[in-house]
């Protein structure tokens, strides 16, 4: 146990240890949560699935919610996260550019706070954190999802939110031969293209049912077109009075330098608090998401006492997103005629000379994951059983010689820069900022005139990650008629490696920056009209939102744009008008190709080794004639961490010859950096259940759990990016000595199982969390470098995660499931209400502001009919507004990391199926029937950050099984 643990933790541990001693001393009858039986896949349909879920919940020692397949090859939803959100206390997070549920929040804890396992094993993920992107986990042929809201020490205690255990079917689940096949087509209304999903499963047992093999494979494709309006960051700072609307100052030179000549004029002094938009724009994204899932499982039972299982799970997901958009960049000191609301939000302004950029991108990500495992179960005696499990998993992002991102940026500026205005007229949940002036030199009719558009920057990059996990666990169970004892241990090694290669590192991205001669610049070249595709109209861009946009987006292929520039030749051997010869970091080095270079600051190599041991006891007794179940356990976890990276420091900042808003960075020589750290924690757990009557149960649960820091935050390197913006200098730093979050958890529940397939429950919970990891920011100089635009030491906004305060989260979950006799009708409804003693304070302008993220009230309702082979289900999911995270796309605020809030959302989905025969079923699904959007905002509700319109999706298909 670490010294940082609060005194209350020691008291809780002592109490649980005493209960363990008592448990061992009291004779009782052992009974643990019953696993799903072979019959679970025989009783099919919605009602059969709900009854199995209810039975597992009722019999479990701790607080567990379950979703079971309705039949082999038939999970309730096409996405695992979408199914999980039907459970009490579970909400989903959506990937904005696709609209797909990619993560879950449990009782207010999202992402890394929830551990996802496959058959009890940790999943490797190369996406950068510990959380799993659920769009990479196919729901086809999933057998069961279990959400453990209180820990099972024999499984894991490494999640403050919940542990999600995904169980796949195995051949011995149902001896004999089983075949399931499905084929479907889906279409998103904005994409307008029907795309396939096809899968098959084969399972059989042989050799007198002592051997079995199961094989399944699924191909899934989803095409999605999304419209987006964005503000990349609302930056807090201070305006000078001369910048405000109504100012009569003869000149305006905003300054915070008390030694400057401008400071002598009071109207130049920056002392008016406010927030402004760093960048504003809109884009359209077309995403093609292709996934292949494959699995093979072999089982051998040479005797009644021994069972061997070998399995291999493979997935490959390729996501390609084509983007067309526009964007404008703003600097606080350049804003004039600034109008603010009562909160200090800038709701109207003008910035002279604003360039206009038309952007195009192709973002590609390939994620491959493979996990192979061996499991051996041995019943040594009638009382003593052992289980050994070993697995190896590796996940790779963008393996091989792939390019992850191709981006183009063209437009006009300089002489054609615009006195551009942006006005905020409403709330972020139903309006977006609108441009009051735009176009070259203010001429709106020439907004997208191809004759004046020239080249600007060109970005190519690839993010290469890998995550490799080796794990082994050995456990035993001893039981007789009195009680059960579980004991065992686990070793896990997790190695995460990351590097980024891009055209920032060699500054080649600025080879043809500047917009060219139409803008009065001597760098940049005209763009031939042959590169443009059909323009994209911006009319009726976001359904249900007000706010005007320019008439259209220019569409072009970013790689074709890059190839055109490369086709101009080698500027070292041929004079190319428009090439950025004047920039010393580009001119002498670029030879005609946009080659990638390694960004040393991105290199990370994190190795984490964890040893754990556990023991738990379980017994049943009677209190005043009422059955009483007691389960207590304790788990010790020891973690050793080695963190390596490549460090370097800035030694100079220079202005860009092609773009006055950019600053180039010169660095010192790179050098390797490595650190080591370790920590250990003792994690007790206690579950008690009293059956007041056969149908009315009371539960009490207490536990200590932890959540480890995300692996990609543990780098020992301070990273200063190559391309810096004037007035927005930033740096990021990791912290390899971060301690895990630590939580003391308490649950009290009452459950009433008043008839078959029906129950009502209320669950009160409290989580007392310490060691919160916060993304603190501070403004500081680095290595004494000077900002050439001010002549003063450069001030960077440095973001770094540190262990910070503690907080208490409390809430209540309400659940009601009811089936109306044999009518076929029923519903499942739940609601969760949460609160904390550390809510967000919008008036706090300190650098170290803190609040608990992820907390939101939520409610779900599923109504269904299931009878005579016909099923129909309507699901309504609601989540209130919540604080998602600290930090925005641009983190340059003088007041620390600005918040990101997600607005209230409601989604309605519909699914149906009909059994033509016992073997053949047709089915359909309609998602987001009300065409809801996803939107976020900053510190105040009118500070829109993102709004995505991701449309409706329709699916129809056929399923065959025997």
From TrEMBL:
Family according to the record: Belongs to the TonB-dependent receptor family.
Domain TonB-dependent receptor-like beta-barrel: 451-929
Alphabetized InterPro entries for the sequence: Beta-barrel_TonB, Beta-barrel_TonB_sf, Plug_dom, Plug_dom_sf, TonB-dep_rcpt-like, TonB_rcpt_bac, TonB_rcpt_CS
Name used for this protein in its record: TonB-dependent receptor
Residue ranges of domain TonB-dependent receptor plug in the record: 57-161
Gene: iroN
Organism this protein belongs to: Sphingobium fuliginis (strain ATCC 27551)
Subcellular location: Cell outer membrane
Classification via Pfam families: Plug, TonB_dep_Rec_b-barrel
Topology versus the membrane: Multi-pass membrane protein
Assigned keywords, A-Z: Cell outer membrane, Membrane, Receptor, Signal, TonB box, Transmembrane, Transmembrane beta strand, Transport
Motif (TonB C-terminal box): 945-962
Signal sequence region: 1-30
GO CC field: cell outer membrane
């Amino acid at each position: 146990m670490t010294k940082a643990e609060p005194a209350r933790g020691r008291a809780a541990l002592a109490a649980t240890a005493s209960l363990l001693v008592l448990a061992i001393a009291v004779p009782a009858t052992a009974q643990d949560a019953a696993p799903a039986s072979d019959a679970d896949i025989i009783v099919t349909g919605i009602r059969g699935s709900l009854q199995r879920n209810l039975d597992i919940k009722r019999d479990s020692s701790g607080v567990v919610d379950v979703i079971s397949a309705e039949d082999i090859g038939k999970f309730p939803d096409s996405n695992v996260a979408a199914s999980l959100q039907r459970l009490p206390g579970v909400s989903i997070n959506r990937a904005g550019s696709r609209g797909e549920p990619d993560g879950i929040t449990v009782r207010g804890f999202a992402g890394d706070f929830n551990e996802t396992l496959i058959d009890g094993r940790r999943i490797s993920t190369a996406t950068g954190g510990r959380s799993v992107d659920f769009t990479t986990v196919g729901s086809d042929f999933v057998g069961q999802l279990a959400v453990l809201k209180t820990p099972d020490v024999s499984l894991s205690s490494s999640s403050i939110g919940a542990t999600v255990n995904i169980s796949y079917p195995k051949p011995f689940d149902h001896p004999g031969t089983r075949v399931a096949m499905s084929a479907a087509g889906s279409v998103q209304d904005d994409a307008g293209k029907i795309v396939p999903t096809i899968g098959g499963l084969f399972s059989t047992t042989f050799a007198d049912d002592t051997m079995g093999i199961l094989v399944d494979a699924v191909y899934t494709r989803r095409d999605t077109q999304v419209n987006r309006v964005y503000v990349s960051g609302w930056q807090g700072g201070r305006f000078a009075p001369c910048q405000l609307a109504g100012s009569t100052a003869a000149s305006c030179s905003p300054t915070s330098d008390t030694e400057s000549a401008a400071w002598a004029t009071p109207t130049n002094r920056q002392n008016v608090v406010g927030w402004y938009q760093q960048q504003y724009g809109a884009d359209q994204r077309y995403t093609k998401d292709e996934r292949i899932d494959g699995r093979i499982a072999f089982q051998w039972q040479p005797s009644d006492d021994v069972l061997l299982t070998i399995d291999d799970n493979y997935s490959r997901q390729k996501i390609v997103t084509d983007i067309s958009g526009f964007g404008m960049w703003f600097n606080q000191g350049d804003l004039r005629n600034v109008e603010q609301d009562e909160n200090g939000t800038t709701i109207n302004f003008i910035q002279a000379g604003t360039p206009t950029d038309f952007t195009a991108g192709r973002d590609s990500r390939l994620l491959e994951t493979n996990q192979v495992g061996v499991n051996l179960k041995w019943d040594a005696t009638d009382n003593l059983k052992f289980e050994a499990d070993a697995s190896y998993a590796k996940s790779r992002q963008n393996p091989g010689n792939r390019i992850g991102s191709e981006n183009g940026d063209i437009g006009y500026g300089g002489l054609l820069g615009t006195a551009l205005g942006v006005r905020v007229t409403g709330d972020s949940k139903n309006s977006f900022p609108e441009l009051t002036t735009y176009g070259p030199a203010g001429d709106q009719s020439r907004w997208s005139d191809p004759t004046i558009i020239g080249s600007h920057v060109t970005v190519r990059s690839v993010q290469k990650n890998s995550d490799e996990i080796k794990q082994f666990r050995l456990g035993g169970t001893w039981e007789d008629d009195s009680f059960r004892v579980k004991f065992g241990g686990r070793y896990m090694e997790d190695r995460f490696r990351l590097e980024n290669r891009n055209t920032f590192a060699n500054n080649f991205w600025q080879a043809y920056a500047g917009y060219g001669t139409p803008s009065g610049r001597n760098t940049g070249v005209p763009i031939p009209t042959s590169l443009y595709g059909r323009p994209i109209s911006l009319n009726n861009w976001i359904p249900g939102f007000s706010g005007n946009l320019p008439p259209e987006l220019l569409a072009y292929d970013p790689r074709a744009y890059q190839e055109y520039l490369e086709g101009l030749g080698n500027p070292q051997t041929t004079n190319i008008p428009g090439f950025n010869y004047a920039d010393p970091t580009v001119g002498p080095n670029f030879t005609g190709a946009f080659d990638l270079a390694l960004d040393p600051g991105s290199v990370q190599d994190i190795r984490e080794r964890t040893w754990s041991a556990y023991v738990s006891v379980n017994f049943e007794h009677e209190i005043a004639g009422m059955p009483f179940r007691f389960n207590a356990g304790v788990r010790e976890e020891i973690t050793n961490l080695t963190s390596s990276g490549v460090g370097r420091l800035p030694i100079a900042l220079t202005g860009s010859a092609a773009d006055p808003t950019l600053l180039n960075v010169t660095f010192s020589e790179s050098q390797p950096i490595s650190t080591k750290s370790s920590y250990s924690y003792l994690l007790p757990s206690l579950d008690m259940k009293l059956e007041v009557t056969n149908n009315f149960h009371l539960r009490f649960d207490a536990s200590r759990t932890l959540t480890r820091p995300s692996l990609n935050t543990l780098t020992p390197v301070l990273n200063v990016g190559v391309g810096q913006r004037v007035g927005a200098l930033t740096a990021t730093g990791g912290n390899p000595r971060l301690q895990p979050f630590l939580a003391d958890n308490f649950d009290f529940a009452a459950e009433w199982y008043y008839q078959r397939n029906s129950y009502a429950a209320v669950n009160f919970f409290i989580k007392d969390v310490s060691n919160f990891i916060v993304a603190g920011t501070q403004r500081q100089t680095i290595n004494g470098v000077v900002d050439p635009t001010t002549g003063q030491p450069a001030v960077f906004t440095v973001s770094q995660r540190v262990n910070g305060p503690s907080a208490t989260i409390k809430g209540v979950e309400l659940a009601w499931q009811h089936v109306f006799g044999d009518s076929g009708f029923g519903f499942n409804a739940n609601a969760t209400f949460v609160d904390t003693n550390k809510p967000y304070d919008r008036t706090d302008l300190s650098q170290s502001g803190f609040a608990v993220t992820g907390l939101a009230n939520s409610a779900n309702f599923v109504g269904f009919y299931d009878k005579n082979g016909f099923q129909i289900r309507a699901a309504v999911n609601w989540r209130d507004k919540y604080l998602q995270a600290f930090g925005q796309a641009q983190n340059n605020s003088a007041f620390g990391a600005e918040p990101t809030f997600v607005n209230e959302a409601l989604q309605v989905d519909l699914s149906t199926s009909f059994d033509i025969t016992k073997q053949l079923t047709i089915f359909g699904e309609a998602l987001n029937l009300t065409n809801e959007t996803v939107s976020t905002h900053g510190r105040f509700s009118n500070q829109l950050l993102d709004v995505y319109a991701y449309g409706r999706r329709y699916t129809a298909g056929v399923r065959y099984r025997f």
